[in-house]
Design brief:
heterodimer, A: mainly beta, six-stranded mixed sheet, five-stranded antiparallel sheet, about 55% strand, B: mainly beta, globular
């Protein structure tokens, strides 16, 4: 069964600090991996999309890495801001369309002053 | 460029009723997908439409249905509502399958 596991479930960090969120998956075959940021009560917003051949991708203070061999991805947030407080969801897709999309349950990040 | 628009934003219904949710995709996007999000289950895929045809369907009962119109706008219908249907229903649009999906703000459905 395809699974996407994220850790930690929740995280509290001080403003200005860095943090790393983890995503391990068993989806196979693999097409792409996406990280989304979801503010409370809002729809998810795409941060990065990576295919099999990409190891790292940045979007401002967000940097995602992918190790397709170990089926692991991480999202690193640099110099956190209060506005980074949100849930971060890892989504893994296999080839073959939406039936092959598996969502992680997310990491809830809280940045405190 | 307008984003994905979902209406209504909030909805309260009683058990046994039916509900219709609407989604207007980004202009030029032909794929519209629907998701249910609950605190316990996270995001779950409902179905996806492309050019008025349902191409993919998740593992939900037949009470959940949808359609897409010629202008790519989509509606989702849930009949005989149950308490467990209370959730945030999200719609996403993309140009093609497996291209970047943009989500709407969602419709918060509460069944009492």
């Amino acid at each position: 069964k395809n699974q996407v596991e994220q850790s930690p479930q929740s995280l509290i960090i001080l403003e200005g600090k860095n943090c790393t969120l983890q995503c391990n998956y068993t989806v196979s075959p693999f097409s792409n991996l996406r990280w989304y940021k979801q503010d409370t009560g809002r729809g998810p917003v795409s941060l990065t999309i990576m295919t099999f051949s990409e190891n790292t991708k940045s979007n401002g203070r967000y940097t995602a890495t992918l190790d397709a061999d170990t089926k692991q991805s991480s999202l690193h947030i640099t110099a956190s801001q209060l506005s980074d407080s949100a849930s971060y969801i890892c989504v893994v897709s296999g080839p073959g369309g939406y039936q092959k999309v598996t969502f992680g349950t997310g990491t809830k990040l809280q940045v405190i002053p | 460029k307008a984003g994905v628009t979902q209406t209504p934003r909030y909805l309260i219904k009683t058990r046994g009723q039916q509900v219709t949710l609407s989604c207007s995709p980004i202009s030029g996007h032909r794929s519209v997908s629907w998701y249910q999000q609950t605190p316990g289950q996270g995001l779950q895929f409902l179905f996806e439409y492309f050019s008025e045809t349902q191409r993919n369907k998740g593992n939900f009962p037949g009470r959940f249905s949808g359609r897409q119109f010629s202008n790519s706008r989509s509606e989702m219908n849930v009949s005989t509502l149950e308490l467990g249907d209370s959730a945030l229903y999200l719609c996403a649009s993309s140009r093609e399958e497996n291209t970047e999906a943009f989500f709407g703000q969602g419709t918060r459905l509460t069944v009492v």
